[in-house]
Amino acid sequence: MNSTPNSERVHIGIFGRRNAGKSSLLNAIAGQAAAVVSPVKGTTTDPVYKTMELLPIGPVVIIDTPGIDDEGELGSLRIAKTRAILRKTDVALLVADAGEDLTEHDRALIAAFEEAGVRYLTVCNKADLTDHPVPHGICVSALTGFGIHQLKEGIARACKNDGNSRRLVGDLLSPGDLVVLVIPIDESAPKGRLILPQQQVIRDILESQAIPILTQPEGLLDTLGKLTTPPKLVITDSQVFGQVAKLTPESVGLTSFSILMARYKGVLDGAAQAARLIDEVKDGDKILIAEGCTHHRQCEDIGTVKIPRWIEKQTGQKPVYTFTAGGEFPDDLSGFKLIIHCGGCMLNPREMKYRQTAAKRAGVPITNYGVAISHLEGILERCISAVDN
Question: What is the pTM (predicted TM-score) of this model?
Fold first, then answer.
């Protein structure tokens, strides 16, 4: 729980042509051999992720990408992967040759950065090999270390906080408030740990000097009965929403980790509107159910089994489902009636914003697991009012 999750780290993408020195630059910034380097073009065939603390920025993920000028059928696939990295990049580094003018590929990358709204720096590498570097940006030598400190300072300036002061739940609480967290420990729960949203909510409650109380669904009634003061909130795992709602008094605020995540990411209102459209689903309508992480699916998996079952019970209809996980997300969203996404705790804000924007451009409503389930359980308005401040 002490390590900053990747979804909360600044993502720095390194882009450029083959042999521009992208992997060498990653190693120079990291101060270690994080990526394989060689004089052979196309050594990096898949994105390389390096998680680290980078002063003066803090926790970051640096991503080394394949060359944008790769060739052949496999090269096209690698270029597609490189462009997909832009979806999660907060700051891009365009690595060019200090002794040459920018190429067509370099200019195409700059256009892609600007179209995606990604802040970027042009890094003129191999400055040690020329007496007259072309001044397109920050001149460095990944080999000698020249200019690397100035580059880090430039990255830090580009990474300045955008002023997002949202909190998961802490702004709803006062010191001393009791918060009951309902956390099922069943076959779908990870062994030996809590999932990320649960960890983050507990931390935020503690930072507010409120008091978290953890229980399982079957222990909720007993837990509430032992409290001399009613809790300010009951926060539950979405898959047991119905059970928990029946046991939680109407006078006590009720919500879920997934709803808090939608609120934190600033998409709760839109997610609620989209969830209400579940009632309009018809036979054959296409629904995309997307998860941001990859895991071994259980026989009663919430995304692939439980949500489809609840939708069909609610509507009496048989839609057609498409399931994606991890970094997978369709480029073409046309034809989908609805998108139901997980809370996105494993995706950084830029990736989630990309998915939200892609859905909006395609005219497809998008909601998340917890919001959709609360609607299917008939408690959406109650759960939203509990976190409306």
Answer: 0.79
